């Protein structure tokens, strides 16, 4: 009989002026930090996180400022957010370097985390082109319409252009281009292909990440 996967719990990190809401699955093992792209929120990771979570890892998925349940900020410089996320991971008390996964525009945040803080592995998926700098471009690059219908509720972007004002320093940045080297060939099969691979086939995506633990 297989044990049940850990249940999702919701927590608050930071302080009233720099608050992040995040979900957590599990209490032990290596931390896996899942970062959603701009205009989306942490719920995009729920199916893959539930498939991945187990005794070998603790999965963490925060809402970035202004997204989901995290309050907005005037300035969301990537280095500042990376530092706050490093504190969040440290406070989990797991004493292991995390695997950091960045979706779409959050690939820049994931790369900044890896550049400044101990990181076991860096994975980026669905990185947008450099010229994707407004709401329409970011949504078109992410292609949420390609997500299977039953997972569509997890891939609904916000369309408010004001949301991007605090993230101006993220735009016009070169992509990290780490998705293929990080995932290819590690799970005994082909990595999930196409946009939103973590929603197209959450079990396969989780299996790829499990090979990195």
Automatic annotation (TrEMBL):
Record Pfam families: Abhydrolase_1 (PF00561)
Stretches the record annotates as Disordered: 176-198
Domain of life: Bacteria
Ranges where the AB hydrolase-1 domain occurs: 31-142
One Gene Ontology term of the molecular function aspect: catalytic activity
Matching PANTHER family: HYDROLASE ALPHA/BETA FOLD FAMILY, PEROXISOMAL MEMBRANE PROTEIN LPX1
Descriptive protein name: Pimeloyl-ACP methyl ester carboxylesterase
């Amino acid at each position: 009989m297989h044990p049940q996967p850990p249940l999702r719990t919701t927590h608050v990190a930071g302080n009233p002026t720099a608050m992040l809401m995040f979900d957590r699955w599990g209490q032990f093992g290596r931390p896996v930090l899942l970062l959603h792209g701009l205009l989306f929120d942490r719920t995009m990771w729920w199916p893959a996180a539930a498939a991945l979570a187990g005794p070998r890892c603790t999965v963490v998925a925060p809402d970035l400022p202004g997204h989901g349940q995290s309050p907005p900020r005037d300035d969301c410089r990537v280095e500042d957010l990376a530092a706050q996320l490093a504190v969040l991971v440290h406070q989990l008390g797991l004493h292991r370097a995390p695997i950091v996964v960045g979706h779409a525009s959050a690939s820049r945040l994931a790369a900044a985390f890896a550049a400044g803080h101990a990181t076991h592995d860096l994975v980026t998926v669905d990185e947008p082109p450099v010229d994707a700098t407004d709401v329409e471009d970011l949504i078109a690059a992410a292609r949420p319409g390609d997500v299977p219908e039953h997972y569509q509720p997890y891939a609904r972007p916000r369309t408010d252009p004001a949301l991007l004002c605090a993230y101006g320093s993220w735009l016009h940045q070169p992509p990290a281009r780490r998705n293929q080297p990080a995932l290819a060939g590690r799970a005994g099969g082909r990595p999930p292909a196409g946009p939103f691979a973590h929603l197209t086939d959450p079990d396969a995506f989780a299996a790829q990440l499990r090979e990195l633990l």
